[in-house]
Amino acid sequence: MGLVTKLAAEATREAGLDPVRVFSGTYMTGLAMPGISISLTVLPDNEQERDALLDLADQPAYCSGWINHAHAEDAGSTDDAAQGPTTHIKPAADAQWESVIASAYGNVVAEEPKVTHLDQVMGDGDCGHVLLSGATAIYEASKNTQLPLNDPPAALARISSIVEDAMGGTSGIIYCLFLDGLAQQLRRLDCNDSGSLTSKLWGQAMLGALDTLYQYTSARPGHRTLIDALQPFAATLASAGTLEQALEAACKGAEATAHMQAKRGRAVYVQQKESLADAGAVGLVSVLKGIVSALQ
């Protein structure tokens, strides 16, 4: 929010305006509002009227939808001393990563109609489209050599940012948080190149990333979400299982959601008339199938 405020104030000045009060915060929200709202008030030219209006705007308010306990007269200014270190990420190609990404993308394209159908029956119908949007963005970034594929933690952090921009809905948030957590886990394990990574290390890092994800969501295995496929995949790898065994565990986890009572998402409010697997779990399996296929 601070960054958005800074950029908005700078853009206002570039347009020839001089912001004298900048209020930033949660004023009005919507569950389906993936963005921000900016409002501008033009002050009167008359100085007395202008000061009177500013005095009113500065008055403390505690009503719903308008919170102005504090204001910043210049939210566009920066303090060089407060800036953190700058990280420069250099894109790099890697044949194996590119193959994995292309395979996962191809499988998502093939499975998208199925995922969409499942979500049309039990959800809001956008799960397949959202997943395809994220897969497409990652594939395009890989194809155009925009990812640091020689550095797995950096690559996953960048992919997480791409997912954040390209995917909406709850599943997009979950993917983003998980990938970000996975990048942090790999960095903690000092796995800075693909050669140092084993299936077991991937599994351990994925379980650690799930712990990170659990800090932000109450969804757990058994709640009929994509976690029902993700957790067994990670656990199998972490216990020295093969990729094929991990994929089988993920498939079984996704299939099991057909007999679970939904505890998260819109499916909670939709009467389950037939035994259908969770769209998010099936979508994740489509990604995992593509990854495993490329690594075999």
Helix and strand layout, with pairings?
Layout: H1 2-14, H2 47-58, H3 95-122, H4 127-143, H5 152-166, H6 169-188, H7 199-214, H8 227-238, H9 243-256, H10 279-295
Helix pairs in contact: 3-4, 3-10, 4-5, 5-6, 6-7, 7-8, 8-9, 8-10, 9-10
Structure description:
The chain is mainly α. Helix content is 55%, strand content 0%. The protein has 10 helices and no strands. It has helices spanning 2-14, 47-58, 95-122, 127-143, 152-166, 169-188, 199-214, 227-238, 243-256, 279-295. Helix 3 (95-122) packs antiparallel against helix 4 (127-143), helix 6 packs across helix 7 and helix 7 crosses helix 8. It is elongated. The two termini are 43 Å apart.
- Sheet with the most strands? none
Average pLDDT metric: 85
Using only CA atoms, what is the Rg?
Answer: 23 Å
Give the ordered list of helices and strands. Answer: HHHHHHHHHH
List unreliable stretches of 5+ residues. Answer: 69-86
Structural class per helix/strand content? mainly alpha
- How many angstroms separate the termini? 43 Å
Observed structural traits:
single chain, 296 residues, mainly alpha, 0% strand, elongated
Overview in brief:
This protein is mainly α and 296 residues long. The chain contains 10 helices and no strands.
